[in-house]
Amino acid sequence: MTGQFKDQVAVITGAASGIGLAVTKKLQAEGATIAMLDLNEPALEAAARDVGERAFAFNVDITSEARVGDVIERIGNRFGRIDILVNSAGVTGKTNVKSHEAELSDFRFVFEVNVIGCFLTSRAVLPWMLKRQYGRILHIASISGKEGNAGMLAYSASKAAVIGMTKVQGKEYAESGITVNALAPAVIRTAMVEALPEAQVKYMTDKIPMKRCGTLEEVARMAAWIVSPATSFTTGFTFDLTGGRATY
Fold first, then answer.
1. Which CATH superfamily is domain 9-236 in?
2. Where exactly are the structural domains of the chain?
3. What is the pLDDT of residues 149-185, one digit of tens each?
4. Would residue 173 show up in a list of annotated catalytic residues for this protein?
5. Global model pTM greater than 0.85
6. 3-state class of 94 per DSSP?
């Protein structure tokens, strides 16, 4: 087996579909062993079979402290190391809703998945990375976390929190051989986006100078570069993938 991720072990959340599955396939093709995490067990099992060799399914709720701690411990003990974490699991919550109409239960749910999930998984893998003085953590954020998308209060605020977490973690582990970065895409054509109201998608796409959604392949290529051994002098940073929407 050759490839830049040969002998490395990657944990990817939300790996059953969308960005998580695309990144899984990219890293696996370049030599990594993948621990695929997702709450949707049937979809996860099917995705793992589709990826094939060196892809292992772990059904887990990333908002559960006990479940996350247990599954990361099992992964570390099984493979002896954890080199990469890509936090791709996420939800939009209710959209096309103004702030005074937003529901607290929905707001909490979005934060549990998008923020608490990133916190719990990164906290659990960091001791494994510190053992080897090497690691790559990538949180999938969103351009809405930088600029805000009207009608998406919970989602935008949660992704802003993920970006803030990235800045802190990047600084904390900068001398440990561990980088922590985020990726902020504009609209990427995924099942999650397909489920949004067309008016919401048009609102977001109209802001992109290229006037199109990004593709899963484009996200996977950039994610693979960010978590590669070669990307060693950038940490705490949020990379844009926005078709020209973000230029600073």
1. NAD(P)-binding Rossmann-like Domain (3.40.50.720)
2. 9-236
3. 899 999 999 999 999 999 999 999 999 999 999 999 9
4. no
5. yes
6. coil
